[in-house]
Amino acid sequence: MNPIKALLTKELLEHKLVTRLPLFLAVFPIVCIILIMSNSQNFSFSVQSSG
Predict the structure, then answer these.
(1) Which three-class secondary structure string do you get for the chain?
(2) Residue 13: C-alpha distances to residues 1, 8, 9, 19, 38 (Å)
(3) Does pTM top 0.90 for this prediction?
(4) Which among 1, 22, 42 has a CA at the least distance from the CA of 9?
């Protein structure tokens, strides 16, 4: 087995956050967009500034 492949496999098995964090960062915005679009009739966004 290739030593680099073995080291990467061992690293991924020991540190689950390396695979879970990017997956969460990809799924979370998609879920938020779906929730916002499903409630679009009740969703409003306004910005007020003075100066």
Answers:
(1) CCHHHHHHHHHHHHCCHHHHHHHHHHHHHHHHHHHHHHCHHHCCCCCCCCC
(2) 17, 9, 6, 9, 37
(3) no
(4) 1
